[in-house]
Amino acid sequence: MDFALQPANHLFSGALGLMLAIGLVELVAMMLGASLSDLIGMGLDHDLHIEVHHEVAGPEATEGAWAAALGWLYIGRAPFMVILVGFLLGFGLAGLAVQSVARSLTGDLLPGLIAALPALAVALPVTRGVGRSFSRIFPKEETYAVSSDSFVGQVATVSGGTATDAQSAEGKLRDIHGRTHYLRVLADIPGETFPRGAQVLIVRRDGAAFRVISAGASPALVET
Question: pLDDT value at position 157?
Fold first, then answer.
């Protein structure tokens, strides 16, 4: 414990502490019927949305490189909180391991920022591995060229949070290829609410989100 609390190790012990704090907050949020993962993930879908089939050229090349880097880490294709926890865990443990080796060889610890370089080199591939593994279990976004406009008229399931006309929730649906897509949904009619598990019909797009109404009990609607 004393080793982890050394000033040169604050960066790494802090990463591990943040990882534990995120887990605690996520547990409390789930007990309250919400999900920190859903809220942050939906924000990233809006701000850092990655569409693999979108071509980037000319002055947008830098933006394309940034999107490629995020894609390499599977951000947008696996739950963001899982990727963040994987990074924090890899970075924290790798940093402490580097410092342990440094102390064994030299009798002293490296400055935190210097030790952070090899720790980061280890953490990034670990993060990618975590993202790749969880993207197969909890696919967040498919890489197939399916237009999101085609979601209008389909039935989705509220998978995280509660959707109202002012507050979005996470919804999921299956496209015509049978692949799962996650999206933000808002109630189309003021006063309506759709809790987790509710079946909703997508009626129109509203910016980065989709407006929905109750799917009702119509036999023509196919549950997703």
Answer: 94
Residues listed for the chain: 224
Phi/psi at 192 (5° precision): -80, 145
Q: What is the pTM of this model?
A: 0.55
Q: 98: Cβ–Cβ under 8 A, 6 or more apart, which residues?
A: 110, 115, 118, 119
Which residue bears the tokens 């993930």? Answer: 41
Q: What is the 3-state secondary structure (H, E, C) of the chain?
A: CCCCCCHHHHHHHHHHHHHHHHHHHHHHHHHCCCCHHHHHHHHHHHHCCCCCCCCCCHHHHHHHHHHHHHHHCCECCECHHHHHHHHHHHHHHHHHHHHHHHHHHHCCCCCHHHHHHHHHHHHHHHHHHHHHHHHHHCCCCCCCCCCHHHHCCCEEEEEECCECCCCCEEEEEECCCCCEEEEEEEECCCCCCECCCCEEEEEEEECCEEEEEECCCCCCCCCC
pLDDT digits (tens, 9 = 90+) for 24-77: 887 776 666 555 555 555 555 444 444 443 444 444 445 456 667 777 887 767
8 A C-beta contact, residue 63 and residue 56? yes
